[in-house]
Each structure stands twice: as structure tokens, then as C-alpha cells.
Specification:
Bound molecules: zinc ion
Number of strands: 0
Order of helices and strands: HHHH
Strand content: under 5%
Shape: elongated
Length: 108
């Protein structure tokens, strides 16, 4: 999932909350030396836009900016996923249609 650009639901707490990867609003501040009186001047807006474009191009940059070793993070995420898959070994997935339902579906 992570390598596909999707983040597992159960790992969302890593991003949110007090100790999450995302900075809290209090941790974010803007400043610029230009005379614009706006809280977010055009220079700050342009810098944020530039960061957004770079994150769109390479979402893994987020980890780098937070000082997280992305290779290690992916290794752990994959290991957890493999453990989860092994724990579910032999259990039918939720996307598998039961035989009797499939037979009804096709009128057999
Ligand atoms: Zn400015």
C-alpha cells in the first residue's frame, strides 16, 4: 500500500496527533522580510506552493524533511504487512464471493 502511494488506515495515527509526523499548527510559522502586511505574503505563498509541487513529485520527500529514514520506514511497513498477511493465511478475503452467492449470481 505504501509503495502504491496509499497509506494503511491503521498507520494514520503515525501522521496525526501530538507526536505524529505532521507538524501541528503551532509548529508552523511564516515570516518574510518584505513590507507586505499580510500574514501570508506572496513570497510565503510561493514558497509553500513550491514545497507542495515538490511533495507532489516525490511524496517520500515528506519523510526526508521530517528526518525519517524512508528506506527503514518502508522495511518496517512491509514487514508489518507481511506479518499481517501471514496471520490471515487461510482466511478468505472480504472480496471473495462465497460459492453459494456466486451460484445465485449466475443463476446456477
Ligand atoms: Zn514576502
Amino acid at each position: 500500500m505504501l509503495l502504491e502511494g496509499n497509506f494503511p488506515q491503521e498507520m494514520q495515527e503515525l501522521f496525526q496527533g501530538k507526536d505524529g509526523f505532521f507538524p501541528s499548527p503551532r509548529e508552523i510559522s511564516f515570516s518574510c522580510s518584505c513590507p507586505d502586511w499580510a500574514l501570508m505574503c506572496k513570497h510565503v505563498a510561493a514558497a509553500l506552493y513550491g514545497v507542495g509541487v515538490r511533495l507532489d513529485e516525490n511524496p517520500l520527500l515528506f519523510f526526508e524533511l521530517r528526518g525519517i529514514n524512508v528506506d527503514r520506514f518502508i522495511d518496517v511497513a512491509l514487514a508489518n504487512k507481511v506479518e499481517e498477511m501471514l496471520a490471515n493465511e487461510g482466511k478468505p478475503g472480504s472480496r471473495i464471493i462465497k460459492d453459494e452467492e456466486a451460484m445465485k449470481l449466475f443463476g446456477v
